[in-house]
Design goal:
Strand content: 15-25%
Helix content: 25-40%
Distance between the termini: 60 Å
Structural class: alpha+beta
Length: about 675
């Protein structure tokens, strides 16, 4: 079974301590009955207010057997209900064994591909019409063939006879909604109804979005077969919103979009205008920054002065691993800069996005610890599913893994190479600051972008921007309430600058994960408008161990490395469990728009490839770092100069919106 999983992982890539210093606990809220959830959320919010918000961790990108690629290439059998039970920390059956997450999530969404959702599951019934059809028999005999049959059908937007795609989707969607509602336990675990819209421009450039619904029912998914244009997906969301069905879309894996995810142009190749910018910002307030297929923050090509930019790089196209994805237009830090430029031209910022993290795991097991990863888009329970030595050799690329050849690509003379199993990362996580663990409270946090992302560990991150925060602010009683009242949390805009204020100041605070490494440092990444372009700079604002930034190099000394490469163990004798400070921008220009976000680094810990090699007494893969610095990313805080063109246009737009609301 393990060997098949490694080969399926290669094939798939062708397709696409719990208390925070602020007094915020991550323990579960009291359990309430589902029918009382709205009242519970309202009471929690009114009693605590913003200052009572807690950090919750969850998953917003996960696939089960109801995704056609998971069924056909990975042999996935996990149902949406089982996947959510696993996320909650329950034991579920998995093949000939069982699986349990090391620790429960607070919230989760199963996001099976809308394209051909549930179609392959008809083949689990040997008496179904699809099973008895000629094409069904072909797929049963060779399950991976389904991938190319369906992929080509989606690319060409041509339905396949005997598949019963629409009835299959309706049945599957009912199962998806039922699973989310059955696993929703307000105050303890939140499950969202969701799916993935999987557009691949020209069959190679990733434009995928996850669609997250706020309530307990949702219309049938909009697929890329309906339209491959994101603008048409937004129309679907807007029409539903007008009917009282609220949802948002979250782009992911810009790093493999070939420069299209954060482009200067719309889907038709026209320069982004005000309407496009407003619609994108409304429908896509978040973007996924880290997951199983690498991170989309930045890379060394775009951020050559960032010494930590070379982290978990996955930079080739999903369906063509031999082809490198274009960097420009594919990464989020650059998108923040492009957004400022576009905003100056049209008066709206299409890339005013918060950040989330996720897994994109395709076997239903959302596990984010390094030891719960063993190559490919799979989660594992390391206690029951760790690959044996021979299988581990394949996962670590110590023996060749055969490539799966697309028959059409082969006919066109386009070579394919096998996927590098070690390029996959452990899963990411989404963190939100919310009043309660309910759909209402967590969805509201997603909408207002009060979110952060991690590369897997439960690092807690919080930041506020304002004009009157001083060195003593963190020592004041009720400082969180004061920060909300006079400043802006992550995802927000700095309030208007007082005439006497020289520069904004930022409260930044981070706490280590309970089961991971200490913290190395907190950084503030600043991106600002510069003429017709933009610039960036990374500031080390809080360092562990009393280290200081060298004024000559602008860098701090490394924190050190305690990882024992014989055992895979490390010691938290370096770093710090908590870092916090109030930082004031030393290079602030009141006339220049800017965006600020926090990045937090852990001390070095072993990567999954290192842990697997040690466990099975194998050599380390030469192409991968033995240790990594896990990290967290906060959603940005924006600064817009008062009296600027953008500020005037924003005021005009807000006034028009208020007038429109009054008219209704």
């Amino acid at each position: 079974m393990g060997s098949r999983m490694a080969e399926r992982g290669a094939r798939w890539a062708l397709f696409a301590t719990t208390l925070f210093i602020a007094g915020c606990s991550a323990q579960a809220d009291p359990v309430v009955k589902p029918k009382a959830k709205a009242a519970h959320a309202a009471v929690a919010a009114s009693a605590a207010g913003p200052a009572g918000r807690r950090a919750y961790f969850g998953e917003l990108h996960l696939h089960t057997a109801y995704s056609f690629d998971a069924w056909s290439l990975m042999g996935a059998k996990t149902t949406p209900d089982q996947a959510l039970k696993f996320a909650r920390g329950e034991v579920i059956p998995f093949g000939k064994t069982h699986a349990q997450r090391a620790w429960p999530l607070d919230f989760a969404a199963v996001t099976d591909h809308s394209e051909n959702m549930g179609v392959m599951n008809q083949l689990d019934d040997p008496t179904s019409g699809f099973s008895l059809s000629a094409i069904g028999k072909k797929i049963i005999a060779d399950p991976p063939s389904a991938f190319y049959i369906l992929k080509n059908a989606v690319d060409k937007r041509q339905p396949i006879p005997d598949m019963n795609a629409k009835p299959a989707m309706k049945t599957a969607w009912d199962i998806e909604m039922k699973a989310a509602n059955a696993n929703y336990q307000p105050g303890k675990f939140t499950a969202f109804i969701a799916y993935e819209w999987s557009s691949m421009k020209q069959g190679r450039y990733n434009l995928h979005r996850n669609v997250i619904f706020s309530g307990d029912k949702a219309p049938l998914p909009f697929t890329s077969a309906d339209s491959p244009r994101p603008e048409d997906l937004w129309t679907y969301l807007e029409k539903n919103r007008a009917q009282g069905v609220e949802a948002l879309a979250i782009p992911h894996n810009g790093n493999v979009s070939g420069g299209l995810m954060y482009d200067w142009n719309d889907s038709d190749g026209r320069p982004i205008d005000e309407k496009y910018a407003q619609r994108r910002a409304l429908n896509e307030p978040l973007t996924e920054i880290v997951q199983n297929k690498g991170q989309s923050e930045t890379n060394p090509e775009l951020s050559s002065s960032d010494e930590f930019a070379n982290f978990e790089i996955f930079d080739h196209l999903l369906t063509h691993p031999e082809e490198k994805s274009k960097s420009h237009g594919s990464y989020i830090r650059e998108a923040f800069g492009r957004g400022l430029v576009i905003e100056q031209k049209v008066g709206a910022n299409p890339y005013k996005m918060g950040v989330v993290g996720a897994s994109d795991i395709h076997n239903g097991l959302s596990a984010s610890d390094e030891n719960a990863m063993a190559g490919g888009p799979f989660g594992i329970d390391p206690k029951t599913m760790l690959p044996d030595r021979e299988e581990a050799k394949k996962r670590l690329n110590l023996v060749p893994t055969p490539a799966l050849i697309d028959e059409q690509a082969e006919a066109d003379g386009k070579p394919h190479q096998p996927e590098d199993n070690t390029i996959f990362s452990s899963a990411g996580l989404t963190g939100v600051w919310a009043e309660a663990n309910t759909r209402e409270a967590i969805f509201a946090a997603l909408k207002r972008k009060e979110t952060f992302a991690t590369s897997g560990p439960r690092i807690r991150v919080r930041a506020f921007g304002g004009w009157n925060f001083g060195r003593g602010t963190l020592a004041e009683p009720n400082w969180v309430a004061k920060a909300y009242a006079s400043g802006a949390p992550m995802g927000g805009d700095l309030p208007a600058r007082p005439a006497t204020a020289k520069a904004p100041s930022f409260i930044v605070q981070a706490m280590k994960a309970p089961d991971s490494g200490n913290l190395d440092r907190i950084q503030v990444v600043k991106v600002w408008l510069d003429g017709q372009g933009y610039k960036e700079k990374v500031f080390d604002v809080a360092l562990s161990g009393g280290r200081k930034v060298d004024p000559r190099t602008g860098r701090a000394p490394p924190v050190g490395n305690t990882v024992d490469l014989k055992t895979g163990k490390y010691a938290n004798t370096i770093g710090a469990p908590v870092l916090q400070t109030v930082w004031r921008d030393p290079e602030f220009n009141a006339a220049t728009p800017a965006v600020y976000y926090v990045r937090v680094l852990e001390i070095p810990t072993p990567r999954w490839t290192t842990l697997l090699a040690i466990a099975r007494h194998l050599p380390f893969p030469k192409e991968r770092a033995k240790t990594i610095q896990e990290r967290a990313y906060g959603s940005p805080i924006w600064y817009t100069p008062a009296g600027s063109k953008v500020a005037k246009l924003s005021a005009r737009n807000m006034g028009a919106g208020a007038a429109s609301a009054g008219g209704r």
